């Protein structure tokens, strides 16, 4: 059985994951309209992944005797100055999600809720991977700078990451 404080913290994370999905969806749409098919595909995949993270939390809350709440979301930014800004925001957002997950782990340990702590370890590992991917991509984007040929190749190459 979840304590009320852990249930509340997990429901906050449900909102964060849903807002992440929306933020990445808005980035995908922006890139698609700009003709950046690879970046768009990558961000659509990221949006779907965040939705799956949200659903995983919802199921866990309900299975542990809590009640998952689907709350109102803050609207994401829908305009970006550049594709580089998208990846800067992507990294910033992943760092914020990691901080939130770490806080959840802290609460679970404080309350000696080892089942929730164990469940959250998947998210800890996932965030390590997400941040590493975001940093690597942003490093490549910074190398490209304003080179249109580099952007073309990057957009093509990142699309290959999304083909599964």
UniProtKB/TrEMBL annotation:
<dbReference type="InterPro" id="IPR001519">
    <property type="entry name" value="Ferritin"/>
</dbReference>
<dbReference type="GO" id="GO:0016491">
    <property type="term" value="F:oxidoreductase activity"/>
</dbReference>
<dbReference type="InterPro" id="IPR041719">
    <property type="entry name" value="Ferritin_prok"/>
</dbReference>
<feature type="binding site">
    <location>
        <position position="94"/>
    </location>
    <ligand>
        <name>Fe cation</name>
    </ligand>
</feature>
<keyword id="KW-0409">Iron storage</keyword>
<dbReference type="InterPro" id="IPR009078">
    <property type="entry name" value="Ferritin-like_SF"/>
</dbReference>
<dbReference type="InterPro" id="IPR009040">
    <property type="entry name" value="Ferritin-like_diiron"/>
</dbReference>
<feature type="binding site">
    <location>
        <position position="50"/>
    </location>
    <ligand>
        <name>Fe cation</name>
    </ligand>
</feature>
<feature type="domain" description="Ferritin-like diiron">
    <location>
        <begin position="1"/>
        <end position="145"/>
    </location>
</feature>
<dbReference type="GO" id="GO:0005737">
    <property type="term" value="C:cytoplasm"/>
</dbReference>
<feature type="binding site">
    <location>
        <position position="127"/>
    </location>
    <ligand>
        <name>Fe cation</name>
    </ligand>
</feature>
<dbReference type="Pfam" id="PF00210">
    <property type="entry name" value="Ferritin"/>
</dbReference>
<feature type="binding site">
    <location>
        <position position="53"/>
    </location>
    <ligand>
        <name>Fe cation</name>
    </ligand>
</feature>
<keyword id="KW-0560">Oxidoreductase</keyword>
<comment type="function">
    <text>May alleviate iron toxicity in the presence of oxygen.</text>
</comment>
<dbReference type="GO" id="GO:0008199">
    <property type="term" value="F:ferric iron binding"/>
</dbReference>
<comment type="function">
    <text>Iron-storage protein.</text>
</comment>
<dbReference type="GO" id="GO:0008198">
    <property type="term" value="F:ferrous iron binding"/>
</dbReference>
<protein>
    <recommendedName>
        <fullName>Ferritin</fullName>
        <ecNumber>1.16.3.2</ecNumber>
    </recommendedName>
</protein>
<feature type="binding site">
    <location>
        <position position="17"/>
    </location>
    <ligand>
        <name>Fe cation</name>
    </ligand>
</feature>
<keyword id="KW-0408">Iron</keyword>
<dbReference type="InterPro" id="IPR012347">
    <property type="entry name" value="Ferritin-like"/>
</dbReference>
<comment type="similarity">
    <text>Belongs to the ferritin family. Prokaryotic subfamily.</text>
</comment>
<keyword id="KW-0479">Metal-binding</keyword>
<dbReference type="InterPro" id="IPR008331">
    <property type="entry name" value="Ferritin_DPS_dom"/>
</dbReference>
<keyword id="KW-0963">Cytoplasm</keyword>
<dbReference type="GO" id="GO:0006826">
    <property type="term" value="P:iron ion transport"/>
</dbReference>
<dbReference type="GO" id="GO:0042802">
    <property type="term" value="F:identical protein binding"/>
</dbReference>
<dbReference type="GO" id="GO:0006879">
    <property type="term" value="P:intracellular iron ion homeostasis"/>
</dbReference>
């Amino acid at each position: 059985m979840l304590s009320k404080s852990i249930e509340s913290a997990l429901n906050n994370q449900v909102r964060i994951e849903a807002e992440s999905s929306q933020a990445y969806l808005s980035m995908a749409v922006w890139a698609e309209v700009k003709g950046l098919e690879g970046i768009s595909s990558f961000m659509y995949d990221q949006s779907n992944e965040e939705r799956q993270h949200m659903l995983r939390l919802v199921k866990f809350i309900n299975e542990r005797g809590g009640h998952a709440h689907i709350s109102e979301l803050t609207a994401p930014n829908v305009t970006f100055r550049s594709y580089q800004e998208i990846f800067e925001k992507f990294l910033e957002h992943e760092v914020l999600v990691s901080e939130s997950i770490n806080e959840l782990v802290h609460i679970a340990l404080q309350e000696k809720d080892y089942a929730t702590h164990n469940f959250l370890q998947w998210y800890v590992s996932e965030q390590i991977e997400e941040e590493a991917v975001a940093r690597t991509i942003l490093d490549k984007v910074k190398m490209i700078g304003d080179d249109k040929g580099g952007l073309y190749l990057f957009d093509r190459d990142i699309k290959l990451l999304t083909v599964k």
